Amino acid sequence: MDYTPPWGMQNGHVQSVFASMCRKNNCKGLYQRERMDTPDGDFIDLDWAVKKSSTLVIISHGLEGDTHRPYVTGMVRAVNQMGWDALAWNYRSCSGTPNRYLRFYHNGVTEDLSCVINHALNRGRYREIYLVGFSLGGNLTLVHLGRDKVHPAVKKAVVFSVPCHLASSAKVLARPGNCLYMKRFLRKLRKKIRVKMAIMPGEIDDEGYEQITDFKGFDDRYTAPLHGFQDAKDYWKKCSSLQFIPHIKVPTLIVNALNDPFLSPECYPVTTVFKNPHVTLEMSRSGGHVGFLAFNKTGEYWSEKRAMVFLKRINQ
Fold first, then answer.
1. pLDDT grade, residue 1 (50/70/90)?
2. Is the full-model pTM beyond 0.85?
């Protein structure tokens, strides 16, 4: 089931930018929000789209995303059209309300995903949980499935555009051709640093922030020390999902487009996946980064159709 882009939209950058910036996104009336307290005294904001099903799909967004991003709401609508419940969760600091601590989120914060899964199961209604993740959320999902004790209710997973080797992906994003993406990420992250400066004066600062030009600089200064890593390299090494793919026991589909401008060759783990019968890797010729756009009457993107086909298949 390979992806074929619309005419004139074959370029990976075009697909990535169009899907992110130009897709129609009407979230009004889609969600019911719930604030979930975490064991460490913080909170996570959850957005539910409920059809009163016994199957729940939990959706994890990408770096500096949130539950209102078009790729998330598109997947939520596809899930609801299947008759299933959807739960899209905002990482700490991503819901529009700053979290209570200096820490926020990163590629390996699977304890928060586990909390979301357990919280949903505590409703006592769900017999099956499916996981869907995009980009950072895809990496997070794979790390959880391969490293953590996975709840038996979790039956399948689908992830898209996954930087499963963080160090090499960070180098790709640091290339001059990706400078617009990099600047946008750093600009959004700086806003969060400044919010924390306002509510936690003296505990964090952005002095000299303009000297940071890539993820190594940001992760060395902020992500690593705030979350208990030695430095960016230590963080990338411990939180790259590539090393955990061999241990995944849940049927899982990884979809990484070959023209994804964010991914390095290491992010296409053909040999690793070949050795694990539970994991399928699809390398579509096109799609960009969290792109897979389509022009049709329903507004449904190819990624949403692909996810539904995989999740509804009985003997996957």
1. confident
2. yes
